[in-house]
Each structure stands twice: as structure tokens, then as C-alpha cells.
């Protein structure tokens, strides 16, 4: 039996070295968005457009999927084949970064954010969800730009389709979340 210990140790070492998958519970840090990064959905250069961006970490991938808008990211994440693969996602907190050119140090966990929908600001593909780390800052934004406040759990394909068609603002957007 002692003669087998080096062989078992070698097998374990080889198995861990060949495994490129990441631990599904490991939270990856947000990645910077550079001038060469393109949107995972539409293929456009992300930094050429204003508005909050998103990035998602999927199972078995260390690199983030990056998106030119929060709307594009949520459309991707709501697809059935992606819903079960999501580890975690980040969005820009637009309370602490300029809408015109969001900064890399302003990413917050998407699941913890408050979102304003139906507002008058535009992102790369038209309407986009405006994320905030605090409900108070979301309320302040909605007072100036109109719209309704929702949570991560309120986001579904029906809401995203209506926002993508530029339907709804104010109370109409709120009813979309229900």
C-alpha cells in the first residue's frame, strides 16, 4: 500500500492540473472594460457608447462576458441556456460614475442593485436599465429622469422585450415589472 501513495498523489496532481473549470462558488472580481472589448451579444465596441454596462461570469469560464448595456446583458442572462450557467454578474452603479463614460471601479453585484426602468436616458441600444447600489439614489434618479424602481428579481424577458421596443415609462414601466 505505501508504494501506491506516490502514484495516487501523482494522479490527484494530474487531475487538478487538467481541470480548467472554475469553482462555481468562487466570486470573480469585475474585469476592466477596454477599448478593444466588444459586446458579447451585438459585437459592438463597448466603450464607444454611453450608459451603464454589464459583465457576467458563467460556469466553467474564468473570463467575463461583457455587454454594451445592462439591457443586452439581461437579455443574454434570461435565455434558458444561460440562466443555469450564471455564477454572478456586475453592473455599473450610475450613482457614482458618469453616465457618458462609466468607470471600471463602479461595478456592483447585479443581484444586489436597484434598477430604474422607463427613464429618459439612453444607452448603446436605446433604453437600458439604470442600476444603483442604493434605493435612495435610484429614487433621486427617477425624480429627475422619471421611471420606476425595480429589483433584480423583477427582471424577466417580458419586461426586457417591452423596454427593447421602447415601450413604457413611468407607471407603464412599473406595470411591466409585475
Automatic annotation (TrEMBL):
<feature type="signal peptide">
    <location>
        <begin position="1"/>
        <end position="21"/>
    </location>
</feature>
<protein>
    <submittedName>
        <fullName>Nitrous oxide reductase accessory protein NosL</fullName>
    </submittedName>
</protein>
<dbReference type="InterPro" id="IPR008719">
    <property type="entry name" value="N2O_reductase_NosL"/>
</dbReference>
<keyword id="KW-0732">Signal</keyword>
<dbReference type="Pfam" id="PF05573">
    <property type="entry name" value="NosL"/>
</dbReference>
Amino acid at each position: 500500500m505505501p508504494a501506491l501513495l506516490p502514484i495516487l498523489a501523482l494522479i490527484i496532481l494530474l487531475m487538478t492540473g487538467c481541470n480548467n473549470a472554475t469553482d462555481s462558488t468562487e466570486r470573480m472580481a469585475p474585469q476592466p472594460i477596454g477599448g478593444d472589448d466588444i459586446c458579447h451579444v451585438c459585437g459592438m465596441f463597448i466603450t464607444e457608447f454611453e450608459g451603464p454596462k454589464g459583465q457576467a461570469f458563467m460556469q466553467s469560464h474564468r473570463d467575463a462576458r461583457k455587454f454594451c448595456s445592462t439591457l443586452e446583458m439581461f437579455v443574454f442572462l434570461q435565455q434558458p441556456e444561460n440562466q443555469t450557467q450564471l455564477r454572478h454578474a456586475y453592473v455599473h452603479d450610475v450613482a457614482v460614475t458618469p453616465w457618458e463614460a462609466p468607470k471600471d471601479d463602479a461595478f456592483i453585484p447585479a443581484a444586489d442593485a436597484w434598477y430604474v426602468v422607463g427613464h429618459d436616458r439612453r444607452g448603446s441600444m436605446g433604453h437600458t436599465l439604470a442600476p444603483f447600489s442604493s434605493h435612495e439614489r435610484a429614487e433621486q434618479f427617477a425624480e429627475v429622469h422619471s421611471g420606476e424602481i425595480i429589483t433584480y428579481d423583477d427582471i424577466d424577458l417580458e419586461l426586457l422585450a417591452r423596454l427593447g421596443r421602447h415601450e413604457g415609462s413611468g407607471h407603464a414601466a412599473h406595470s411591466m415589472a409585475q
